[in-house]
Design goal:
Elements lengths: L5 H8 L3 H10 L13 H10 L15 E3 L3 E6 L5 H9 L3 H5 L9 E5 L5 E5 L4 H9 L7 E7 L6 H12 L4 E6 L8 H10 L13 E3 L8 H15 L2 E3 L5 E10 L3 E10 L2 E2 L3 E4 L2 E9 L5 E2 L1 E2 L4 E7 L8 E5 L2 H34 L1
Parallel strand pairs: 2-4, 2-5, 5-6, 6-7
Antiparallel strand pairs: 1-8, 3-4, 9-10, 9-17, 10-16, 11-15, 12-13, 12-17, 13-14, 13-16
Bound molecules: guanosine-5'-diphosphate and magnesium ion.
Guanosine-5'-diphosphate binds next to α4.
Subcellular location: Mitochondrion
Organism: Tripterygium wilfordii (Thunder God vine)
Family: Belongs to the TRAFAC class translation factor GTPase superfamily. Classic translation factor GTPase family. IF-2 subfamily.
């Protein structure tokens, strides 16, 4: 919608220019000439008012794209060691070691390796978080680590994780965990996975398999190498300059600091002091903290940060966009709230209709 004129927006939405200009006035914008380009915020707002789900697609045209770290989610059957593996990986981070550990619970952490490469892990293992984020359009995860216990083998939630990853078109790297156990049988796990349709590398496919033990902390380097290799094949790049496009990974209310959101920037750079709209909330970024609680001036792609200064509590999966002024932030937040409320009421009324149909 960037730079669209009222007349173009009318064509796109199927509404008359008069209607759109009325909306502009209603939301407190002056009725621009129909050939004047609208700012992306105003265009989104107008589109929402006529019931269109405006999705911002930032143009990367001309922007320099630089390699960025992969964002990884850990999935697998209950008790196969997802939490243990994340804990073990967290401890391999150079920065975390230097800082004496990661002090804050962010919902995400970075493993930075001595080679200079880094990997961002979402610290909320499980299918629910992954699905919730995806359902809200937040395509944050680049790679799924599928954890399978070497003794238990493939179980129901292993298969679920596989189908989630497949549906989201996210590649899998398999971590066969608990390889320290006497009953461990990694070869059996591989055969099971292959028979479920996973194209393992050692059988001519492209899915890497790594044998690890989260408890004994073995194979972690290999897992990290495998993830970096996978990321390299995906050629993950992001625009660094320009307005940030980010997602909320986790949000919580702090008694002293108010609503806090853990965010991962997808593109651009999030800068302290900027006005943002997050889902239907808004705020002005008062502080940005990295995973060890250190204040940062800005956040770059794939870097998990905690942001402070929001007026309300956002939800995991909410998008974060940067707007130019407090006025715009309030306007867009109010517009989104109206839209969400409308959608909610519509869903309720549709629900009632469905109930009535059922009773017939
Ligand atoms: P989650 O449910 O997938 O998060 O699994 P947890 O990380 O909570 O682990 C479940 C149990 O398996 C715990 O008792 C862990 O100590 C144990 N466990 C996890 N990883 C390993 C491992 O590599 N080796 C052994 N022997 N036990 C493990
Ligand atoms: Mg767990």
């Amino acid at each position: 919608f960037e730079g669209m004129t009222v007349s173009e927006l009318a064509k796109r939405t199927g509404e008359s220019t008069v209607t759109l200009q009325d909306i502009l006035v209603n939301v407190g914008e002056k009725a621009e000439s129909e050939f004047e380009p609208l700012s992306i915020d105003v265009a989104e707002l107008v589109a929402m008012e006529v019931g269109i789900n405006a999705r911002r697609i930032h143009s990367n045209e001309g922007a320099e794209l630089l390699p960025r770290p992969p964002v990884v989610t850990v999935m697998g059957h209950v008790d196969h060691g997802k939490t243990s593996l994340l804990d073990a990986l967290r401890q391999t981070s150079v920065a975390a070691k230097e800082a004496g550990g990661i002090t804050q619970h962010l919902g995400a952490f970075v493993v930075d390796m001595s080679s200079g490469a880094s990997i961002t892990f979402l610290d909320t293992p499980g299918h629910a978080a992954f699905s919730a984020m995806r359902a809200r359009g937040a395509a944050v995860t680049d790679i799924v680590v599928l954890v399978v216990a070497a003794d238990d083998g493939v179980m129901r939630q292993t298969l679920e994780a596989m189908s989630h990853a497949k549906a989201a078109n996210v590649p899998i790297v398999v971590a066969i965990n608990k390889c320290d156990k006497p009953a461990a049988n990694p070869d059996r796990v591989k055969i099971q996975l292959a028979s479920e349709g996973l194209q393992l590398e050692e059988m001519g496919g492209d899915v890497q398999v790594v044998e690890v033990s989260a408890v004994q902390k073995t194979g972690l380097d290999n897992l990290e190498e495998a993830l970096l290799l996978q990321a390299e094949m995906m050629n993950l790049k992001a625009r660094i300059d320009g307005p940030a496009q980010a997602y909320v990974v986790e949000a919580r209310l702090d008694k002293g600091r108010g609503p806090l959101a853990t965010a991962i920037v997808k593109a651009g750079t999030l800068v302290c002091g900027q006005y943002v709209v997050i889902g239907s909330e808004w705020g002005r970024i008062r502080a940005i903290r990295d995973m060890i609680g250190k204040l940062a001036v800005q956040a770059r792609p794939a870097m998990p940060v905690e942001i402070e200064g929001l007026k309300g509590l956002p939800m995991a999966g909410d998008d974060i966009i940067v707007v130019e002024s407090e006025e715009r932030a309030k306007m867009l937040s109010a517009g989104r709230k109206r839209k969400f409320e409308k959608d909610r009421l519509r869903k309720i009324s549709e629900g009632i209709e469905t109930l009535e149909t059922c009773e017939d």
